[in-house]
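G.,

No rush on this.
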Amino acid sequence: MCSPFIASQKKISLCHMKQGIIMAFDYGAKRTGIATTDPTQTIASPLETVATEKLFSFLENYCQTHEVAVFVVGDPKQKDGTPSPVAAAITVFVNTLKKQFPDADIYQQDERFTSKMAFQSLIEGGVKKKKRGEKQLLDKISASIILQSFLESKIKIPV
């Protein structure tokens, strides 16, 4: 189950985060990569890549067996900082997430270059070329990079 929602626009440091798992999304029109932390909110790990149309069904099932306290959604910006074309769809996703899980805190995290970073991590990890081409793998690794960036950032601003 998800923890109570704090509707706040103030900045929150990680030491004031709710207890439970933090879940991050690399949202896409077709697929969404998902990553989670351990319960101590220390380690970000890739979890799954889900067809975006089935995302809320997946989340409802997952939250029945795991205490998700916080959702982090990748904030897609272009190199110059302007919103990317998928930003409008992500706004709809965030608003639906708020309605479906009103007890969870929701944050956004800059996701620029996460796909490139995910691909590079696969190369450095010795993953074969054929496996590196699997977009599902890249999506969930990108989500884990978004989540790790969120954990490392000093200040969190709720959506």
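When you get to it, here's the other one too:
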Amino acid sequence: MTIKNLINEMHEIKRKRQQLLEQAEELKLRQDEMEANIKTMLDEINEEYEFLSEEEFQMLLSDMANNSMLNVEVVYALPGQQTIKEIQVPRGASIEDSIKLSGILNDYPEIDINRQKVGVYGTVKALADTVHAGDRVEIYRPVTKTG
């Protein structure tokens, strides 16, 4: 191999090294961007589920990652107004968990799930009962006399 060939090969190696360094920098920027996006998403999840204990929150994240979530609806009706929250809950979640995760208690602070009856599809249930995929969790208003 001639000196000219060696010099050309050395320049080619330097060029490829520079390309690799640029690609590494681009990947680092993408990684930083993804990490920032993940942090933002976790912050949003944290705000949405701030009422959960750290253990409950970690269990929820684990269940989300394991794709063992169920779709359920949480419903509360007032005269002339019905609110339906479509949510995902971890497999094994209770009616109470579903109500709390839905955020409906924030929307209607007058709801007292410890006093009001709850149910699924018109059947009264206990707060501790487990929900199943597709359940419609209902929060019943107290019966009041009119007139």
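DSSP finds four helices and five strands in the chain. Residues 42 and 100 are 19 Å apart (CA to CA).

Enjoy the weekend,
O.
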